[in-house]
Amino acid sequence: MKAKLLFMLVALCVLISSCASNKNSKSDVIGEEKIQIPVPISVGTANVQLEFVSYENDILTAQVVEILGYGATTTPLNMDSNMPFYVHENIIEVVSKMEEGTHFNATVALLGEQMNNNTTPKWRLTKIMD
Fold first, then answer.
1. Which of 27, 59, 60, 126 could link 85 by a cystine bridge, Cβ 3.0 to 4.6 Å?
2. Whole-model pTM?
3. Could you give phi then psi for residue 90, rounded to 5 degrees?
4. Which residues contact 102 (CB under 8 A, 6 or more apart)?
């Protein structure tokens, strides 16, 4: 009697577990798209496409070709003329090897308020994107 009861209990467990839904089955995955959530742009920064003009004394001069996105509260960049950018120490080597006319995507950060001096950069080049 105990053996019959144990057999029926095991059979019931097997039946219940085989009826469970498998969320990872191939049929559920086919046709689904992975949604990629974009990384938000940090406050006070912008993602831009720049054209290299020159580099001297840790200051990059570049033309803003395209604005790819602004972070919250970021002041708009001027696209009409060449702009000076301080270069973050981690990317000085990469920037120093660039040639005039090279286009590249980068993240730039707005620096604190500067005196009314147009020759002092108001932006820092912080990252070169792939």
1. 60
2. 0.66
3. -70, -15
4. 51, 52
**Phi-psi sector, 10: left (phi>0), alpha (psi -120 to 50), beta:** alpha
Burial 13-40, CB ≥16 within 10 A → b, else e? eeeeeeeeeeeeeeeeeeeeeeeeeeee
**Spatial contact of 74 and 109, defined as CB atoms under 8 Å apart:** no
Distance CA 55, CA 123 (A): 15
Q: What is the pLDDT, as a whole number, of residue 27?
A: 46
Per the model's pLDDT, the better-predicted residue between 115 and 50 turns out to be 50
- Could you read off the pLDDT of 37-82 as tens digits, one per residue? 778 889 999 999 999 999 999 899 999 999 999 998 888 888 878 9
Query: What domains lie within the chain, and their CATH numbers?
Result: 45-128 (2.40.50)
Amino acid occupying residue 84: P
Burial class, 57, CB count within 10 angstroms (exposed 0-12 / middle 13-18 / buried 19+):
exposed
